Amino acid sequence: MSLPLRYPPQWIVDWCQEHGWTDLFVECRQYWAFPPGAVLPQPIPAEVLIAIKKAQGLSPFEQQSFSIWLGLFLAAIAIAWYWTTPLPLLSLFAGSAGLVAWLDDSELPAATPRVSEPPDYAQSFYLD
C-alpha cells in the first residue's frame, strides 16, 4: 500500500464503526466502504476525512517526517555556517518542497456537486 498515511487506517475504521459503514478497503489511494443499507461501496467523503484530520491532528507518519525535517534543518544550518556556503540550505529547501508536495491534501477527491440540469455554457451550444 503506497498511501502516505495521512489518515491512519484506525482513524477511518473508528469513524466507520461510529457511523455504520462496513467493509472498509483502499482502492486508488482512497478509502472506500459500504454506507448503511447500501449495496455498492462509496469513497469516504472528503469532508469526513478533513473533519477526522482536524479532530486527530498529525498522524504518527507526519510527526516522524517533521521531526526528521527539523533535524536535517538544524544540521544544514550548522554545516552551512561551518563551511560558509549556502549549498546545504539550498538542498534542504529542495527536499522541503518535495516533503510538502508529498504531504499535500490536494489529491483528496473534491465533493461532487449534484446538478440536475446542464450548465448554461452547455445550453448555448444547443441553441444555435
Write structural notes for this entry.
By secondary structure, the protein is mainly alpha-helical. 55% of the residues lie in helices and 10% in strands. The protein has helices at residues 9-19, 46-56, 60-83, 87-102, 120-127, and strands spanning 22-27, 30-34, 42-43. α3 (60-83) packs antiparallel against α4. The longest helix has 24 residues, at 60-83. It starts with 8 loop residues before the first helix and ends with a helix. The model has no long low-confidence stretch (mean pLDDT 82).
* Distance from first to last alpha carbon: 51 Å
Helices and strands, in order, run as: HEEEHHHH
- The number of distinct β-strands equals 3
Main sheet overview: 3 strands, antiparallel
Rg, please? 22 Å
What structural class results from the helix and strand content?
mainly alpha
Approximately how much beta-strand content do the residues carry?
5-15%
Helix tally equals 5
Which bin fits the share of residues in helices? 40-55%
Low-confidence stretches: none
Q: Based on Cα principal axes, name the global outline.
A: elongated
Strand order of the largest sheet: 1-2-3
Overall mean pLDDT stands at 82
Keywords: Membrane, Transmembrane, Transmembrane helix
Transmembrane segments: 66-83
Describe how the helices and strands are arranged.
Blueprint lengths: L8 H11 L2 E6 L2 E5 L7 E2 L2 H11 L3 H24 L3 H16 L17 H8 L1
Keywords: Membrane, Transmembrane, Transmembrane helix
